[in-house]
Amino acid sequence: MHAVLQAERWPSKADIARETGLSGQAASVIVNRLIEGGLLIKRDKVRGQIGQPSTPIAPNPDGAFSLGIKIGRRSVEALLVDLLGKELGASRVRYEAPLPEPAMATAIAQATGLLGHLPAAARERVVGLGVAMPDEIHAWATELDLPVGALDGWRTADVAGALERATGLPVSLYNDASAACAAEMIAGNAITTRSALYIYLGTFVGGGVVLDGRLYQGEQRNAGAIGSMPTGRRLDGGPPAQLIHSASIFLLEAALAAAGLAPSTALADGQGDEANAIFDAWSETATAELSRAVVSALSVIDFQAIVVDGLLPPVWRQRVTARLAAALEGFNRSGLTPTTVAAGSIGPMARVLGAALLPLKARFSPDTDLLVRSGTAARPADTARV
């Protein structure tokens, strides 16, 4: 029934019965209970059609709410959404390093602050709090130019417990890139196939996996961790470098800062000749290594689509996607099936949006999980088949 109600049109009770296979009486009983519970509302009658006027049924935006928190390597973000996923309030605090105590204090302050804006009656309708954050955030101090051990507090931090005690809400933890992938599946338009490799170009590159139309998080909640995939080059004579060392945004930020440019400004608009030259140099290296990772992934799972999203402004996101598609053309891919390469549609908000939407999905669509919406198509300008 949830899928029916999430369609573009508002169905009547008869439509719901027909499309769900329920009897008319069963559909009417269920709909009436949901209306009484405040989750559904009746719209104005539709007249002028054959037969009796019908009364459309729609989700009540104020029927439920959800809160999302993203704890990242450069910022903490919070987002409050209604039942339809509409933003009701947001907060973002940037920092130079994700030190555990101040980051957690910020997350708690953001969560309680956003909840405080809701009336008491609405507060009781908040179904949960989702937290999106990198796995093993403590392991990347060196890459962030921090002293060894500076992030060790994350090893024992009880993130879910601290937020649950502060808000009184049930808290669920998600890998940040998987949460971003979920946001694209639920609210975006780039994942339209039943399998996809989702790439999030964040401070550190990460990924998500879609299999059989569902987000696959893995037995240990870490599927799609392409940032840890080894590359051909070595760092200071040590073991092979990982993809994070060549396809992550922190490298682009460092190059922009070294040139005297403000990374936050460049990443906001993608303007300026010097910033674009620096971006092109970074993306050439990034896509060379990223394309190897993608081909390796395609040899294990025949993903129908590769979707690239992240912190880049739309103009840069399109260019890096096109460059990746071109790089894939240069490989001998005998024995591998073709795939499409498309730019993601959500951007920097994907991780916190996914964190906010996932509790709603868990509450109201537990059996269907994250099914790919049917009848949608990627925008032709954003998609290349290789």
From TrEMBL:
Q: Which organism is it from?
A: Azospirillum oleiclasticum
Similarity comment: Belongs to the ROK (NagC/XylR) family.
Q: Which domain of life is it from?
A: Bacteria
* InterPro entries referenced in this protein's UniProt entry, alphabetically: ATPase_NBD, ROK, WH-like_DNA-bd_sf, WH_DNA-bd_sf
Q: What is this protein called?
A: ROK family transcriptional regulator
